[in-house]
Amino acid sequence: MDRILDRRALFRVAVVGGGAAAFSGALWQEAFAAVAQPGPSPYGELLAADANGVQLPAGFTSRVIGRSRQRVGATGYVWHDAPDGGACFPDGSGWIYVSNSEVPLVGGASAVKFTADGTISGAYRILSGTNVNCAGGATPWGTWLSCEEVPWGRVFETWPGGGRAGVERTRMGRFKHEAAACDPVRKVVYLTEDETDGCFYRFTPDTWGNLDTGRVEVLCGAADLTDGPVTWRPIPDRDGLPIPTRLQVSAAKHFNGGEGCYYANGVCYFTTKGDNRVWAYDAAAQRLSLAYDDSLIPGGAAPLTGVDNITGASSGDLFVAEDGGNMEINLITPSGVVAPFARVTGQSGSELTGPAFNPAGDRFYFSSQRGTTGQSSGGITYEVRGPFR
């Protein structure tokens, strides 16, 4: 038990979204008294595209670590199609990057192992035979929750180090899952739902660290609420048959296409692609507010559209990937500035997925799900290095 607690303490700092943000929920709420607005990036303007077709600020470089249907580095492992949600995990003096595969029937997830200097030392499958694995989330005890984005989809708990089969966690609810984020203080897992009238859920395990049993609740509030208190109510039938979970509680607040989900220091941030919003749920105050809304950017000059996966850095910056838009990863600073951090060129038929920082916070990973071909077989996974603040 002591070893488990030690690991939890480590992952609480190093895993949740790739770095523990340095700003409390109260400070974020103060920063977002008005939603984020365009402004100068703390990293400066994007330069011309590099040899990998990636535009980055000065001082940053990219490399390709995986291409769908090609071997990863010097390993014999062939990288999966349609790479999607991802996260990093400490592994001795190195780390592991985990990535889902958003394809039907075979789905699953893979992992790439790195040594302390960033050398790829291995790659392998950690989940197979699942269906359209889109996003997910890391747990404080070092596992990866891989979520199926299909009706009555499931959550699978997987082990980044390999050597153990993924385990189905259907007590977390059967719906069109997207992402998950763990709150170690309240001991709950937040879950998004990718439906045009989807909901925002939380799963409270009977025992923290064991996802076998527990209760599922849905966030409730007025339909037009964008800033104010919310409540939680239990889902009567987590299996969603015959009535889908999102339709079982009349007071449930509905969101237009739930996507990424990220927790840090009392706040759970989640994105909705249908209205290009980033939401902030202050867990201590049980209050919902908007961190970003493209419709509130004057002059139609929103730099961030097609909001999708989200993660955060130790600086408190949020990094949001685009599905569509102009294929950028934008950052939102704690002071409420939104600006491009990276842009992938020549891949308009793709989407950016899986943003995650390594434990040290000096390497950043993401994928272009369909790459230059616009097909699931054309996925590309990147690493960015540079002077992250």
UniProtKB/TrEMBL annotation:
It holds the Pfam family PhoX. InterPro entries: PhoX, TAT_signal. This is WD40-like Beta Propeller Repeat. It comes from Cryptosporangium aurantiacum.
